[in-house]
Amino acid sequence: MEYTLKNGNCTAIVKSLGGELTSFKDETGKEYLWQSDPTFWGGCAPLLFPIVGALIDDTIQFKGQAYNMPKHGLVRKVEYNLIEKTDTKIVLETKYTPNTLQHYPYKYKLTVTQTLNSDGFTTEYCVENIDTVNMIFCIGAHPGFNCPLDGGDFSDYTLIFEKEEDPEIYNTDDKSILTFEKPIKVIHGKKIPLTHSLFDNDAMILRKLKSKEIKLIKDGTGKGLSLSFEGFHALGIWTPPHVKAPFVCIEPWCGLPAIYGESGEFNDKPFAITLEPNETYTTSYTMKIID
Asked: What's this model's pTM, rounded to 2 decimal places?
């Protein structure tokens, strides 16, 4: 089911399938979010849980027992239940099922709150451990933004961090697995000038960032958008390799894809979060128009 949010002259669409915010338009009717064209990528802004990225052989271990789990986890393609709806906000929820327990051995409740602001939107995730044992998980966002936004080409845009950065940056390979063997240097002070060739090896994964905000700006205009991501520990940047897709994904993550040579135990995944029974973990990201 689709739900429409409205705040002033801004509108948004949220789908119960995946709990995704799938459209954000400003007062001029300009669309900021990628519109799921399967020619390039059929997604828009999926929620990644309880893993981000891919696993080696789609397999992860919990206390020595192996479980099969698809790329990006279990909640992207499930129907969420409506909890609350106003003109500017919607709260949707999903929880464990007998099927999820076959792939992830914990009982959880996951709430997604989509809020339409007058100049953008906020997506909030809340994970609750409703099991009787400690629960470990990763969680991440995967929003795609149209690029170009205001005319021109993909390469007329630059990603700009709020602070001078020299993080660890790695590519995934053709199986979406990290190698950690060849860190790459693409940041010039605060900036990553966008080119499609940056993504010839798939996603860029950034660790040890000082910034908690990044901007997507058309060169020479100062116009675009910002994405703030306080509470996340890594950042993925991606557009499909070798096809010159007209969008870029900016992906705040708590967790990383599998790494060659890792133990295979979930407990060893970088940035994984552990919750005690009845505890909750909440994090969010906010997109704002820059005009």
From this structure: 0.96
